[in-house]
Amino acid sequence: MIEFAGVTKQYPDGTVAVDNLDLVVPDGTLTVFVGPSGCGKTTSMRMINRMIDPTAGTLTVGGEDVSKVDPVQLRLGIGYVIQSAGLMPHQRVVDNVATVPVLKGQSRRAARQHALGVLERVGLDPTLAQRYP
């Protein structure tokens, strides 16, 4: 489960990107952040894996406060595909999605099979798996 409890991200210049977010994402659910540009979607996602730290509130993943977890270990436990510039352009979509399982020791074959299942679960056309970002 992922839980945001009063999470805020305010930058030094005073810009508030996320303001007092309360959200619970139960295990096993597919959750999508939808909204206009600048509403805090990417900032919220980046706080989950500690690419950005919140300035207030508590964010937990699996019951653990992410501020107390080593960022590398946290990221290895989270399936997350970054949009645009974060994708590896030299790897096919399926291999981008399979990156974390491979880093955790899963065989490339098994990781690709899992990645294909993830692509199917989110409703992407399976032919996209073989394309480059």
Structural write-up:
The chain is of the alpha+beta class and 133 residues long. The chain has five helices and four strands; from the N terminus they run ββαββαααα. It has helices at 41-48, 71-76, 93-97, 99-103, 108-121, and strands at 2-10, 16-25, 56-61, 64-65. Strand 3 and strand 4 (64-65) form a beta hairpin. 15% of the residues are buried. The model has no long low-confidence stretch (mean pLDDT 90).
Q: Please give the oligomerization state of what you see.
A: single chain
- What is the structural class? alpha+beta
Ends: how far apart? 29 Å
Q: Sheet with the most strands?
A: 4 strands, antiparallel
**SSE order, as H and E?**
EEHEEHHHH
Strand count:
4
Query: Radius of gyration, Cα only, in angstroms?
Result: 16 Å
> How large is the share of residues in beta strands?
15-25%
The helicity comes to 25-40%
The largest sheet has its strands arranged as 2-1-3-4
Indicate the mean pLDDT.
Answer: 90
